[in-house]
Amino acid sequence: MTPLEFDFLKTFLKTRSGLVLSNDKQYLVESRLLPIARSSKLETLSALIQSLQKGGNRALETEVVEAMTTNESFFFRDKTPFEHFKETMLPAMLQNRATRKQMKIWCAAASTGQEPYSLAICLKEAAAKVGGWRIRILGTDLSQEVLEKAKTGLYSQFEVQRGLPIQLLLKYFDQKGDMWQINAGLRAMIEWKKLNLLEQFSHIGEFDIVFCRNVLIYFDQPTKTEILDRIAKALPDDGFLVLGAAETVVGLTDAFKPVPGKRGLFQKKQAAQAATRPALAGATSRLAVGATTLR
What is the pLDDT of residue 136? Predict the structure, then answer.
């Protein structure tokens, strides 16, 4: 691959997915795209790049973008965000949404679905507190392929062993040969939708909690700022944003402030300023239909 071809790919991927490739990632590009070239009956990586340059092959363009975006996920990944959910976010929502008993959660860059399903399990485990509530979880991703896997809720032995306690596996999964499938009740709690964070997403509505973990690290600073500011518009003043351990809003946007003592957890600036007063009281949220009522 020539330097000019690599420069084209860098521009192509940044435009389509926001992914920023450094010059030392050429080996990664080659390892992921050579199999696509071969399966597309293109003899070389240069031939694949020439096809992309010509345009008009949407299927190939999509395959290239999906091959280069990382789809790493596992159940209860990093643990801390789920502790924040159980100990901070959920109690706040139970208080603030007590009248309406409705809550919406968005998992952006949900990959193969382990994060949304982990949250669904947390909610099932808290059934005594959220019984009768209408709760909607939306999982989105750039890749249709990983969303199709997420919809099935079907995982290998290796996948369920990564972060999922055995008691929760036996409680919420059914064994299907050498695979495990999360039960129908939990699958029904989650809606899946293909979504590119580079595009406008106001049409998906407002959410009380947004998980957007381990995806901003792949974007440049202006793109991070733009996405964070649009997420802020999708959250009410008392909503929560959860980022990955290596991600922050500091230096990117004034719309959010860190929740003190809660790594990776952020609130709208208005809520952070109100924290010195009796906090998190009485807010309401506009909610879409189609949620699941927990019993």
Answer: 95
